[in-house]
Amino acid sequence: MKHGIGLRHLFRESSVLALLLLLESASGWGQELSTPATPPADSLTAAVHELQEQVRELRAAVIEVRSEAAQYRAETAELRRELQATRGELTASVGGQTSAHSAVPAATAHSANTNSSLHPAQAGALEDRVAALEESSQLLNGKVDDQNQIKIESASKYRVRLSGIVLLNLFNTRGTTDNQDFPTWATTQGPADPKGDFGVSLRQSELGLEVFGPRLAGAKTTGNLQLDFSGGFPNTLNGVNYGLVRLRIASLRMDWQHTSIVAGQDNAFVSPLSPTSFASLAVPALGYAGNLWGWIPQVRVEHRYDLSDGQSITLQGGIFDNLTGELPYDSFLRFPSAGERSSQPSYGARAAWTTNIFGRPMTLGTAGYYSRQDWSFNHHVDGWGGMADWDIPVSSRISLSGEFYRGRALGGLGAGFGRSVLFSDAMIGPNTGVRALNSIGGWSQLKFKASSRLEFNGAFGLDNPYAQDLRAFSAPQSYFFPSLAQNRSALANFIYRPRSNLVFSGEYRYLRTFLIDSNSNNAEQVNMIMGILF
């Protein structure tokens, strides 16, 4: 009831404020009309219409808040009634046993108590149920309290939601890797390199904004912005602790009932899954080890067909910024990459089938990708890829997910260690040989949910460029480590959530990377993670 009184008080203050604004505006118009410098009638009419529109929007917002508050109060009352009933049942069971015990002779009291006591499994189940109901009641009470909180103020009249995660990674590495805090492959250990290292980082923390816009042509519009702090390091003392802000996602969506349009920088929809890991958020887990990924500017259309028995089919198609995996040519000025020099985007399409198994969705998908590339001096390459993805519940607690790909010149999606082509010479010229790099790979993950708060994950990935392409030139060159031949990676982790917004995790990762006609390099890392979501 206190929440209801607070809400009514808030609505009453909002209504009085709106009325005062209306009277003050009307008084101002009366004074302006009494002066010689009377504004034009059209301007006055427009002002009146604008004020009326604002009043209508305020009324609609108040009605929406009242409706949500009423719904939360009803759900809270229902949970409280169920909680009281459960407690009554538990009390009646214990009380009934106590009465029975008092009716028997004193000589057999101990025996009666033993035989008629509540079964431990039943008592534990009732206690778990009571605890779950109390937590749900607290959650709903928190949602009602949210209605009285001051929200993020936007320059527009539309709602904005802030989200993110503060993530602490504490890691210890054995061997040498390409990157200390979230490694993707093992490198050759030099005579001056340490055998291991220890470090702490928070640069994988994320910050997000979600904007809820107006309805347009019957579609709900939303915007999504996600940033992290893994964009490099400033050139200053202890700069490794001051990660630079990096743009991950900046997308706009228009959602109808069965159709969506997405425009902006977003995940590569032809490869929608990634292994579950809080040790590697800046680069998705098993990236460059079989997990194709990329936050790429794109425009795509999605359409969903609802079938019988909870089944659906999703079709996706769109265009991407035609990236090839190259490093930027300049730190400030942008120059076209080989894909962008082709004067056309890259293309992607995906089809997925979803049904329900063990009360959870099962999804099977297949996708295709094409990229036309111009490497100068009339060296043209056709990049392509075929992908498959799956997320299959094996039981109520176990699921199997993963992806597989086979492609050519897919460096823009992270295949072949991010390389699309190899060159016969370090300098690209008319006589330089250019060879597209074929690769095959994928990953798979087994997930076990021990409870609603604890889960275990194990995953393995492989990225395997074709040896015949790597050996096509006597001394192959590329824009990125031409000697890398194959990358394998495996991980095992646990994730514990004592509360919905609190995360504790531990992960072990093993890396093995092969070089052309050389030995392999090994590395392993143990990562302890603490995070809080907001």
Provide structural commentary.
25% of the residues lie in helices and 39% in strands. The strands form two sheets. The protein has a 16-stranded antiparallel beta barrel with strand order 1-3-4-5-6-7-8-9-10-11-12-15-16-17-18-19. A two-stranded antiparallel ribbon has the order 13-14. The chain has helices spanning 2-34, 41-103, 109-116, 120-146, 467-470; strands at residues 160-174, 196-201, 206-216, 219-228, 246-255, 259-267, 295-306, 312-320, 346-357, 360-374, 380-393, 398-408, 421-423, 434-436, 438-449, 454-465, 484-499, 502-515, 520-533. By secondary structure, the chain is an alpha+beta fold. The protein is globular. It contains five helices and 19 strands.
Question: TL;DR of this structure?
Answer:
The chain is α+β, with helices and mostly antiparallel strands and 534 residues long. It has five helices and 19 strands.
Entry keywords:
single chain; 534 residues; alpha+beta; 16-stranded antiparallel barrel; two-stranded antiparallel ribbon; 5 helices; 25% helix; 39% strand; disordered N terminus
